[in-house]
Structure formats: C-alpha cells, structure tokens
Design a protein that fits this description.
The chain has about 230 residues and is α/β, with parallel strands linked by helices. The protein has one domain: Rossmann fold (3-Layer(aba) Sandwich), CATH 3.40.50.300. The strands form 2 sheets. A 5-stranded parallel sheet has the order 2-6-1-7-8, sandwiched between helices. A 3-stranded antiparallel sheet has the order 3-4-5, with helices on one face. It is globular. The structure holds 2'-deoxycytidine-5'-monophosphate. The site of 2'-deoxycytidine-5'-monophosphate has 14 residues, from helix 2, helix 4 and helix 8.
C-alpha cells in the first residue's frame, strides 16, 4: 500500500506522516528532505538554482535517504546532512531549487525507486511531500492533503525554530509562508495542488494525536471496505 500525504509547509504534515508510518510499520519517505539536500548543495557551492550552471549540480548530486529511529536520515554526496537541512536558510532555498524541472525529474525518479523497493519487499510506504498524490504516485492507494491556516503554520514554525535556539520574528515567518505558498502553488513544474481524490485534513484546530488517529482511521476504514 502506498499512502501519499501532501500539503503546505508547517501544516503538521511531516510529524503526522512520520507517526502514521511508525504505527503502520511502513517505510517513511520525506521527499521535502531531498529538495532540502539539493538546496544545501546550492548554498554550499554558491551556485544559484536560477543559473544555467546549476544544471551540472542537478545532474550529479547524490541524495540518499535512510530510515532512522526518529524518521529518516538524509545523505548528500555521502555526508549525513540531516541536521544541516533544517535551517530557515535551507527552507527558503529549497523552494527555489524545487522549481527546477531537472531537479524534480531526478527526485521523482528516486522516490519511485525507493517506494518500489519497499513494496517489492512487502512493506507499506508513507510518502510525504507536495506532489505525491498528483505526480509521483497518482495511483496511490490512499491520498491525504494536510493543511492549516497560514497563521497557525507561522506560529508552529516559530515554536520549532525557538526550540532550536534560533531567533524568530513571527511576522517575518508569516510573510515567508505566504511567499512560499505562492511560489509552491504557482510554479510551472508540479505545483502544490489538491488531488481530486485526496482527503483534506485541516489541522488548525486539532491536536497531533487527533490528526494521526484521523488518518489511521481512514486508512483502516478504507482497507476494510477494500477487503469486502
Ligand atoms: O516539506 P519541506 O518544507 O521539507 O519541503 C521543502 C521544500 O521542498 C518546499 O519548498 C517544497 C519543496 N517540495 C517540493 O517541491 N516537492 C515535494 N515533493 C516536497 C517538497
């Protein structure tokens, strides 16, 4: 079974997807982490994703995900960058690299291979991102679109960054979220959009446990219906 979980930044999608995968003992694939690793490469090399020189990077970059106790480890050209990809600078850059068609093509191919390997070995997959239900796996067995108001998402992001010791201005974060939403949903290549057959999970007013249970109930409910 392939479970696609899409939605905008800060909707609670990642932590929810990770917990759903843990409870189902499924392989968890965080596709945002892959775009973040590409972004880190852009920052480190100083080559802007909008420049033609980025083509070489897009073609040669090696990204690898490994399951870990707290979700997933991300490797960039063999180096563990799981912590380094979580800064605000990388968040902003990842939205820019994810506009590139060549980057997306490569990431989508990798995502399909990873999911295929898991399902060949009889494992369910929870894959989360922006275009999983629309582009990567349009025929996914279950599709969810996790969302929340921009204000709630900015507040959550501020809390996360403060916990990491970063100084934040919530107004700036809200503006960045609006800008990122706009870029992610209006870009030409695989914009963030709701798949017609996805279930919308609005997390603005629900607790983490409620979100996880809601998704699990729907997966189990549908599984029972499938078996009939
Ligand atoms: O989910 P996230 O914040 O870690 O994602 C980082 C960036 O990557 C975000 O700007 C959207 C982009 N992304 C994408 O374009 N497609 C995906 N499947 C996952 C993420």
């Amino acid at each position: 079974m392939i479970i696609a979980i899409d939605g905008p930044a800060g909707s609670g999608k990642s932590s929810t997807a990770r917990e759903v995968a843990r409870r189902l003992e499924a392989l968890y694939i965080d596709t945002g982490a892959m775009y973040r690793a590409v972004a880190l490469k852009a920052i480190r090399t100083g080559v802007l994703p909008e420049s033609p020189a980025f083509t070489t990077i897009a073609e040669s970059i090696l990204i690898h995900l490994e399951p870990s106790a707290d979700g997933v480890k991300v490797f960039l050209d063999g180096e563990d960058v799981s912590g380094a990809i979580r800064s605000e600078e990388v968040s902003v850059m990842s939205s820019r690299v994810s506009q590139r068609v060549d980057v997306r093509r490569r990431m989508v191919a990798l995502q399909r291979i990873m999911a295929q390997r898991a399902s060949d070995s009889g494992r369910d997959v929870v894959m989360e991102g922006r275009d999983i239900g629309t582009v990567v796996f349009p025929a996914a067995d279950r599709k969810f679109f996790v969302t929340a108001s921009a204000e709630v998402r900015a507040r959550r992001r501020a809390r996360q960054l403060r916990e990491k010791g970063e100084e934040v201005d919530e107004k700036d974060l809200l503006r960045e979220i609006h800008e990122r939403d706009e870029r992610d949903s209006t870009r030409e290549a695989s914009p963030l959009r709701l798949a017609p057959d996805a279930r919308v999970i609005d997390t603005s007013d629900s607790s983490f446990e409620e979100q996880v249970e809601n998704i699990l109930t729907q997966i189990r409910g549908n599984a029972a219906a499938d078996a009939r």
